[in-house]
Amino acid sequence: MAAARQVLCLWALLGVPRVRCEPIRYSVAEEGESGSVVADVAEDAGLAPAQLSARRARIASPAGRQHFRLERGSGRLVVAERLDREEMCGRSRTCTLAFELLLADPLQFFPIEVSVEDINDHSPVFPDERVTFKIPETSDPGSRFPVGAAQDLDIGSNDIQAYSIIPENEYFTVFIQSENEKFIELVLEKPLDREEQPEMDFTLVATDGGSPPRTGSTQIHIVVLDINDNAPIFTQKLYIGHVLENAPEGSVVLRVVANDADEGFNGDISYQFSQSVGHRHSLFTINSKTGEIGIAKPLDFETEKKHKLTVQAVDGGGLSSMCNVIVEVLDVNDNAPEIVVSSFNSPLPENVEPGTVIALFAVRDQDSGVNGEITCALEEQLSFSLRPAFKNYYELVTVSTLDREERAQHMVVVTAADAGSPPLTSTHTFSVDISDVNDNAPAFNQTSYTMYVHENNAPALLVGAVKATDADAGPNAKVSYSVVPARGPEEEPCSCVSVNSESGGVFVLRPLDYEQLRQLEVVVSAADAGSPPLSSSVSVRLLVVDENDNAPLVLHPSAQDSSPPSSELVPAGAEAGDLVSKVVAVDADSGQNSWLSYQLLRATEPGLFAVGAQSGEVRLRRPPTERDAAKQKLVVLVRDNGRPPLSATAALSVLLVPGSWDAQLPQQSPAAGEDDGSLTTSLIIALVFVSLLFLLSAAAFVACKVCKRKELSSGPVLYGASSVQSYVADGAAAGTLPHAYCYEVSLTTGSGNSEFKFLKPVLPSLPAQHCSTGVGGAHAEEFPPVPVTMGDADFESPGMQSVAQLNGF
């Protein structure tokens, strides 16, 4: 069997899925066994057999019933079930089965038509197995007696070709009339004689044109009657009636009328259907008396548009005649359009290009004419549209980009409506699920995070959490967290902080020391599990909260070395409120933890001295007297403002210079002036000695601290004792940093009084202190120089010099 190869349409090559404009046609004989090969459809479609399996080729029939199947391995089209042409198409001259060969990836289909050829598988069948004719003996030669024609369900050459009488007799011959519908008549060739032969029997045989031919027969019984010389005559040879297909049962379609010239019993006419082959007569009834033809069962225009009936009129004498009746069924719009889906792809990735075909379907309406004209439309869909494909096929295509995060499912409703009055509609809903594509990076709920941790924290302490969400779904929305280098992959990430990969909890892994590390900043990345993964990052700033873990450190007077403390000199003429000394202390903590207060803890003469609570200045509460001990020992308590407070003590030694405790010195002779000069020299020597001793003590203190710091820095310790410079830097910030003092003792002559002046401290500019965390990529902080106040005392003296200044403070 040969297939008519067709060419592809030009428009099918310009972006539309490949569709053949003309179908591939085959022919196959009916009654073929299941599995019979029809043709090699893969070769005729220009496809390799391997493509059929790879592209999931299948057969799709609009009628729903699959008469054929496709062998993907060989590409052959075979019969799926026994084909009965008469069952599928009746006596139609052509019997064509239409279906499509569908392929996916990409979507492509080929229309196929298979013509089912008739074979001679049916024998002729007469309406009745036995027919009786009552013929008057006076009938003239040439009289005709109609016989119901045999019916053969086959067509063409396999239909009935000839009639014959067996055994042949001299009285009757067969005449075939072919006007509109075949009529078979027995023609009387010789007059009958009832007295000679009252009855006779013979067989009427119908033979078709098949090879070999098939036959059918009916028995003819002739009864010779006395005189009834007029047969009924119909008013029309052909009656045509019209009826709507939705006419109710019992409705009268038309009425046939026959007249008989005889009178009495011979003129009584009864009507009946002559031809009963098939189911036509079961749809209609005929009133034997009136000849009215009515509807016995519902009619269907889509099943059969025209019904051909044969009515026989028989009079009381046995004479009869026939007429043809054609009942034409008129179509009404009683069938809604049908939507037959051939292919549907769901779910659909959200990144598909506009114009992608997601469904292929056909529409059909069993009504005819205007009632069968169909239009298709979508109900309020902006993302999809319909595109005609081939004949009554439509494609459902995308017209815009899809976003699963905006809408995960589209309910696309296709409405098919006919043009009847009123129009009938049907709908089909395509549930288009949108599958996720990893097109959204995780997003944090904050642009940055600030977290706090108290110093000296426990290891692996949870200090907070970051949170990121991903608008995607499934693995594409699973977020994992990690700490990444702040300045690029070449930098190691901070080892002090980690983040839980699932919950986003931020943990501080080791104890922190505020005095070493005040803040650090890390970058946390959130990545999804897509392929490839998408990520985003956020800055997490970790602020270390100071704890009161450092006691005040007394810088002056120094008690860090073994040298004896220096003594402060108080001249005999000192007055109440004069500055004796100043206790200088610093606290490595910050804020209120570094606010220092001073108080006199013990003293040889408690009522002689007073200590400034904020400044640490030791002043005379009253002028010294002769009753006061020459050497006074003081213990000053230095306490911070922490909770609980920490404290330290400073020991002072004050030497009261002996002399006249009067308000004024007496007048001196020249000899006494020499004694005064000697005393002045002694005091200057003593003051120089005390100053040198203080410088040596300060130098020893600094050297000791430097050595300890080197020992600490040699080991892997993140935190520890603060260096002297750090203490002094914090002391500067707290306002307790010591300044250099210049002590000047002068004795004047001629005034009769001795004077001991305590001068204002020299205020050198402190260099800016730079503090850098040095851990985890944290930023360095610069602390500007802080001016230091020395309390309320403000002593003026010309020629002020710096006798001692601590370096590095």
Automatic annotation (TrEMBL):
Keyword vocabulary terms for this entry: Calcium, Cell adhesion, Cell membrane, Glycoprotein, Membrane, Repeat, Signal, Transmembrane, Transmembrane helix
Superkingdom, taxonomy of origin: Eukaryota
InterPro entries in the record: Cadherin-like_dom (IPR002126), Cadherin-like_sf (IPR015919), Cadherin_C (IPR032455), Cadherin_CS (IPR020894), Cadherin_N (IPR013164), Protocadherin/Cadherin-CA (IPR050174)
GO biological process, one term: homophilic cell adhesion via plasma membrane adhesion molecules
Signal peptide annotation: 1-21
The Cadherin domain, residue ranges: 20-126, 127-234, 235-339, 340-444, 445-554, 562-672
Topology in the lipid bilayer: Single-pass type I membrane protein
Function, in words: Potential calcium-dependent cell-adhesion protein. May be involved in the establishment and maintenance of specific neuronal connections in the brain.
Listed name of the protein: Cadherin domain-containing protein
